[in-house]
Amino acid sequence: MKVLEGQLSVKGKKIALVAGRFNSLITKQLIDGAKDGLLRSGIKEEDIILAWVPGAYEIPLIAKKFAEKADIDAVICLGAVIRGATAHFDFVAGEAAKGISKIGLETGKPVMFGVLTVDTIEQALERAGTKAGNNGFSAALGVVEMLSLIDEIN
């Protein structure tokens, strides 16, 4: 049996980051983590592009625009949706997740979900670089592994 596994190193790939400005205190930390992960994995800084959108709900549209571009190899979606006292959280988090997941299937490119969906600001901070690591960094490693695996399959 032949087993295929992506590596945590790629070269010559161009990555788009799409980040929600809402909760930017958290999102900026996720961006820093993603950039760190990409640079450590062999992506050059000039091959990373960042686009800001108003919030998590708007991420899928711009992520799809990037994924459709021939010169972009993968997209990392970053943001933070923090539960409040209304049902707004459920709509925003659900639609962002649904939209982001469709893009990879439609385009055949890795599109990583690095949007935090948490109950409290404390949980968001934990996942943006304190106790629970940095989900932006994890999303970057995930996209690198997927790109490597796709190259291996092709």
Description:
- Helices cover 47% and strands 22% of the residues.
- It contains five helices and six strands; from the N terminus they run βαβαβαβαββα.
- The chain has helices at 24-40, 59-67, 88-107, 121-127, 135-153; strands spanning 15-20, 48-53, 74-82, 111-118, 128-130, 133-134.
- Helix 1 (24-40) crosses helix 5 (135-153) and helix 2 (59-67) packs parallel to helix 3.
- It starts with 14 loop residues before the first strand and ends with a helix.
- The model has no long low-confidence stretch (mean pLDDT 94).
Major sheet summary line:
4 strands, parallel
Percent range for helical residues? 40-55%
The N- and C-terminal alpha carbons lie at a distance of 18 Å
With strands numbered from the N-terminus, the spatial order across the biggest sheet is: 2-1-3-4
Discrete helix count: 5
% residues in beta strands: 15-25%
Secondary-structure-derived class:
alpha/beta
Number of strands: 6
What's the quick description here?
It is built from 5 helices and 6 strands; from the N terminus they run E-H-E-H-E-H-E-H-E-E-H. The protein is α/β, with parallel strands linked by helices and 154 residues long. Pfam families: DMRL_synthase.
Keyphrases for this structure?
154 residues, alpha/beta, four-stranded parallel beta sheet, 5 helices, 47% helix, LS, riboflavin biosynthesis
Question: How is the secondary structure organized here?
Answer:
Layout lengths: L14 E6 L3 H17 L7 E6 L5 H9 L6 E9 L5 H20 L3 E8 L2 H7 E3 L2 E2 H19 L1
Parallel strand pairs: 1-2, 1-3, 3-4
Antiparallel strand pairs: 5-6
Function: Catalyzes the formation of 6,7-dimethyl-8-ribityllumazine by condensation of 5-amino-6-(D-ribitylamino)uracil with 3,4-dihydroxy-2-butanone 4-phosphate. This is the penultimate step in the biosynthesis of riboflavin.
Family: Belongs to the DMRL synthase family.
Keywords: Riboflavin biosynthesis, Transferase
